[in-house]
Amino acid sequence: MKVCIIGAGSVGLGLAAFLLNAGWDVCFITRKGKSDDLKNGFRVYGLFGDFEFSASEYCVSEDYASCEGCDYILITTKSYANREIAESLNRIKDKIENSKIVVAQNGWGNSEIFKEFFGKEKVYTARIITGFEREKPNLAKITVHADEMVIGNIFDKMLSFNVEDLVEALNNGGFEAKVSCEVDKHLWAKMLYNCALNPLGAIFGVEYGKLAESEHSKSIMNNVIDEIYDVMEACNYSTFWDTKESYKEIFYSKLIPITASHRSSMLQDIENGRKTEIESLNGVVVKLANEKNLSVPFNEFLYRSIKFLEK
Hints:
With 311 residues, this protein is an alpha/beta fold. The chain has helices at 10-21, 82-90, 110-118, 164-173, 183-204, 208-211, 215-235, 244-258, 265-271, 282-291, 297-310; strands at residues 2-6, 25-29, 42-46, 49-53, 59-61, 72-75, 100-103, 123-127, 130-136, 139-145, 149-152, 177-179.
């Protein structure tokens, strides 16, 4: 099997390591000028082991035409690049007619962009709740792991089983993954988690665990969660916890403790002067709330605070 991974950041390197370990052919599609970052090989280490690969074991290209004939295309870039990527892939649509596209990003609404160009049968969504940190251009560390990777189709649940070979390869390569017909519920669970933690951690410059130690930051997170539940209800979305309070119980007792030392990717982006994914997180909550005439002041404050820090 051949997979093209668009984006050679920490998540892209991590998934590539597991698929290479499973015997798949991997090709990275990178931005212009970034292919040299992987010319001497790459390494991924941390919770799942230590994997190192020489440059001869994979390919790197700056040309989307290299996706021709691949079985899967994994989208692991930041979500703000999605429309540009979708348009680029659309220009070689005839060369990837048998390829499945898997969107492995934070947030909600990312897969919809690719569906516009390729239809629901070709576009799949992955939920990853594992902490990847890119220490160097060719070095990534897996710092925390809260749950297995989940892959499915949010547009037609029964199509989810079409990605079983990818899931099997990830497991064989050493990374826990499964097919799910409820990947939409998994995504909203992660939205609750990320929207409460990522921007607040970036604004205060702290790890997740610190946010749960103060009643002041907990109050902010509680209000963020309450607002997201209101938006989900108004938009007919759902997750695995029926009430706000039942989610908060799990959030504070399980989810934060196992990722307490993690520094969010949003914090890392702010520190390195990069654009963040706030648009597909709290920005989506604000957008959906506006469409339903709901007020979400805490999500809007976090959204606007991060937009200020991005400047």
